[in-house]
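User: Batch of two.

Assistant: Item 1 of 2:
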Amino acid sequence: MDKDGSGSINGKDVGQMINCSATPEASRAGRSDEELVAEFLNGFDGARGNNDGNITWNEWLDYYTDLSMSMVDDEYFVQMMQSVWQICEDESSTVSKNQIEALTQSLRHKLLDFSKNSQDEYVLRGVFKEFDTNCSGTLTADELTNMFARL
């Protein structure tokens, strides 16, 4: 998320990820996108914050440590982080194409077994929906892991 490698998250890093015009604050007269982004970033500073418009690693950890304590479970926290910051849980994965193909083939066979060899689209969609616990239309790494464990 530190797109420019500066060691902190700043307005340039998040400016392309958030749409300030969609917020209620945008309707306040005289508020520029830059001001709204700075206000957003300063929200990570907490009570002892310096309001410098940057999120340091320690500010990030403190903020999300506090926030995670109020989450229902870890999966919900991961989903929230993925959707808010548009990141994947494991972007640094080094899985090879051959490993993906082998897993896909194995998964196909297990899903067919699970669906009692039905090739019916609705049956297969139902199986998929059973594993897509956040109803996103895609499987997260955790959902895929859970699916493999169950199959």
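Item 2 of 2:
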Amino acid sequence: MVRDDQAPDPGRFPATRYQGSKRRLLPALAGIFARLEFGTALDPMCGTGAVAYLLKTMGKAVTAADALAFNAAAARALVENDGEIAGPLAGDLARGLPDPAAPPGLVETAYDGIFFEREENRFIDQILPRINALPSPRRELALWCLGQACLRKRPYNLFHRANLAMRRRDVPRGFGNKATWDTPFPAHLERLAAAADRAVFAGARPCRAGRGDVLEADPAGFDLVYLDPPYVSGRGTGVDYLDFYHFLEGLAEPAGWEGRILHRYRHKPLRGRGAGPWSHPARIAGAFEAAIERFAPAVLVISYRSDGIPSVSEIAGWLGRAGKRVEVVDIGRYTYALSTNRRSREVVLVGR
């Protein structure tokens, strides 16, 4: 089905359980972008795609990219996609699943007792081929729905621990997470498909999405580049998104999934965890400098935290050496999901 009646509204970007999402900061970012003159934009660390989606609603020709396959697929579904919607797709895909007579698949065998119940693992194994048989962007829409459903059914919405036992534990609970964990996959998929459908609209200018490393992105042709790197706290603790969301990467690239699994770890992460510079306090400064140098011809907008490594003043110095007039916008205190840091502030550096 194709939608052609949707008006652009950043508030329609669907809620996500993905760590570090800028969805709730879109109004503040919109105010910053509105003061800048640009028509084309690059978001090469797009994550959930929320900021790229905002730029699309503002009539910009935005290109979204990410090093992770699942994030790139999400951007194709919600940013590049101008009209295709899920419609009744979720119900059709889930019909008759899981089939108890089908042989066990990779998720059921490799991840037994780790993240989901066996019947849920069988459901994932059996719906994936149906999703991969869809044409793009329907495939990416359905994949986004499945991935978000997996996040909703996970304690802490992460895959960094083999903690299925937390779901199974029969203890008094003062929060509603267990009801969400126990909601069947088909019910989650239908709700998520409706949320994705509300977000889809035709942009005023063509938008693109793909997969790639920020330090290899072609800087040509962009008036503005938005950078939202992983956060390394002042204590030196980094965020490895591949480790946190390796299961979603498997969903996005099932053909090579089995060969990438590191079986020596209980939570079965994928090869490549910890390889990038952005989660290492000793390497992140070099990555920042390289990115600023690479995109120096464009207006640079960088989302950051006030207590990060490197410091805000260091980043501002690198922007200044790249010939930029630097403005630091303090958005205020903002606490991300699962964070206990109440001191750090959200800041945006603008170099033009």
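The chain has a mean pLDDT of 93.
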